[in-house]
Specification:
Elements: H1 8-28, H2 38-51, H3 55-58, H4 66-76, H5 81-104, H6 111-129, H7 136-150, H8 159-175, H9 179-197, H10 201-233, H11 241-249, H12 293-317, H13 321-334, H14 340-343, H15 346-363, H16 373-390, H17 398-423, H18 428-437, E1 446-449, H19 453-463, E2 466-467, H20 477-486, E3 491-495, E4 508-510, E5 519-527
Parallel strand pairs: 1-2, 1-3
Antiparallel strand pairs: 3-5, 4-5
Helix pairs in contact: 1-5, 1-6, 2-4, 4-5, 5-6, 5-7, 6-16, 6-17, 7-8, 8-9, 8-10, 9-10, 9-15, 12-15, 13-16, 15-16, 18-19
């Protein structure tokens, strides 16, 4: 890997990239201030609980606390919550680009390639910051800083390096629980690789020292949070999101998460908007992936499907992803022998291990594009290394190098720009509808709907109301009426343009007056 950390010239280029990124982000942020998603509402609600001192309900096994902690100061100064979340992600993106620059210095490549990677990262990180409100960009940032240390040529020279790895791994876990199993497995494997590749007895002792230092720091940081959430739920857990998500993925005939089939559900606590603030209480079908032969077959099928999905995500990130993967496969084939672990270039070995562990872990449970952002960034760096090896060939004249660098930049920038376009002004229509509904619907009211769980949840958030979800499938009219009365629902949203099987609602006032296409809202406390 590269011996250089950075040069003054490169620092200037990094500063230029960061300046352009921030100016562009601040110019565009208004177009994304209405973007809203279920997870984002939960992180905002948890942050507000920390501000209000409601720590008992703020401590949550499903959502990591760090994003809400960082969001709380912006809310404290009066920033509108959705806008505050975008500003936070924009600032996290600054740190992520700095982390990317540090990791890039662990790869042997020319400064021109490194600069193209940084400029390619600008639209990519902007698309991450302005898409869904989640901690995935924060996790990516923290783990990139971690990789920047564990990939360093002088990693074994100081116990401080191991301790910093443990610190960053612990912070990553506080951002998202998936970082817990990833760090444990990756930190262990990387130290084993460092141990095998070390040439002296003293170097191997240093690796063991670093591993212990990192493990202790990580255990202290993660142990505090594990203790808090385990105490809350009455059983040992490092997070509940994996169990809930895995249960939904393997639920057989049931349609995903419990919010879609369990029927009406009370909000998680008195100040929650919906049950989604702590989905830990949702029903999760028991499933042992290795319990029976049928379970094993189902797990293999599930994992294979997720691997295919992962490949598609990589291609969406850059059309060059397959070419980069093939190039790295050839690097491995060329070195395939008993000594390959010791002799494999670090630029090939280390990112390959990171991707296999990180993406492989998700492929066992559930895969979404945002889960794999850090892997996509590693692919970008690996692409830079492939270019550096190609440019060693005399065939690649200066003109051909420039053409390849332009293609490389566009392969990442164009898809990212398309994502930015897709998210522009997303959620603005629902925000406008909620403003129109604030007159007839008072804050704090209880809302339910016949379908369209996400949109009704978003409207409930904007209206300052409680959302109880959708009824069970195949429920009779009498049962539905009974459930609405049981939960004291104030407003029932009927999506689809007609009340249809909800004829009993004709006894109640429809408050939209037909002015909202595809939506009727019945005030259940307002009989005609």
């Amino acid at each position: 890997m590269s011996k250089n950390s950075s040069t003054l010239r490169f620092d200037f280029r990094l500063a230029l990239v960061l300046a352009i990124y921030l100016v562009t982000g601040l110019f565009l942020v208004g177009q994304y201030r209405y973007q809203i998603n279920p997870d984002g509402i939960s992180y905002i609600s948890v942050a507000q609980k920390y501000l209000n001192g409601d720590f008992g309900n703020a401590i949550n096994g499903y959502w990591g606390p760090m994003f809400s902690w960082l969001l709380a100061p912006l809310l404290a100064v009066g920033t509108e919550p959705l806008l505050a979340a975008k500003i936070l992600n924009l600032l996290v993106g600054v740190a992520a680009i700095i982390a990317l620059q540090r990791v890039s210095c662990r790869f042997e490549m020319s400064e021109s390639i490194r600069t193209v990677i940084l400029f390619s990262a600008m639209p990519v990180v902007l698309s991450f910051a302005f898409s869904d409100i989640t901690p995935d960009l924060l996790v990516m940032c923290l783990l990139l800083f971690y990789l920047g240390i564990i990939f360093k040529r002088d990693y074994a020279e100081s116990a401080k390096q191991g301790a910093l790895c443990g610190l960053l791994g612990g912070l990553g876990y506080l951002a998202k629980s998936y970082a817990f199993p990833f760090f444990i497995s990756h930190f262990f494997v990387m130290n084993v690789l460092w141990y095998i590749r070390s040439e002296t007895k003293q170097a191997r002792k240093s690796i063991l020292r670093n591993f212990l230092a990192g493990a202790v720091v990580f255990a202290v940081i993660s142990g505090i949070w594990i203790g808090l959430i385990s105490n809350k739920y009455g059983q040992f857990t490092f997070g509940t999101s994996g169990r809930t998500t895995y249960g939904a993925a393997t639920s057989g005939g049931r349609q995903g998460l419990g919010i879609l089939w369990q029927g009406f559900l009370e909000p998680s606590n008195p100040t929650a908007i919906s049950v989604w603030e702590d989905p830990s209480c949702l029903e999760t079908p028991p499933h042992e992936p290795l319990g029976t032969l049928a379970s094993v077959k189902n797990q293999i099928k599930l994992t294979a499907g997720h691997i295919v999905t992962t490949a598609g995500i990589f291609m969406d990130f850059s059309i060059l992803s397959i070419a980069i993967g093939v190039a790295y496969l050839l690097f491995w084939v060329r070195r395939f022998n008993k000594a390959m672990i010791r002799l494999m270039p670090a630029e090939v070995l280390y990112p390959t291990v990171a991707i296999i562990i990180y993406a492989g872990g998700y492929s066992l449970v559930w895969v979404q594009a945002r889960y794999l952002w850090i892997v996509c960034i590693l692919l970008m760096l690996m692409g830079g290394y492939v270019l550096s090896r190609l440019f060693e060939n005399k065939f690649f004249t200066k003109t051909r190098r420039v053409v390849l660098l332009i293609i490389f930049f566009l392969s990442f920038a164009v898809p990212a720009s398309q994502v930015l376009g897709d998210y522009s002004n997303r959620g603005k229509g629902l925000y406008g509808l909620s403003e129109a509904l604030k007159s007839p619907i008072e804050q704090g009211r209880k809302i339910a709907s016949n379908t369209n769980w996400p949109a009704t949840f978003f409207l409930s958030y904007h209206l300052g109301c409680k959302y109880y979800g959708i009824p069970k499938g195949n429920i009779t009219r009498a049962e539905l009426n009974s459930e609405l009365e049981k939960y004291g629902i104030d407003y029932f949203f009927v999506w689809g343009g007609t009340a249809g099987d909800f004829r009993f609602l004709s006894n109640y006032e429809e408050i939209t007056g037909g002015r909202v296409p595809g939506l009727q809202i019945y005030g259940l406390k307002k009989q005609k």
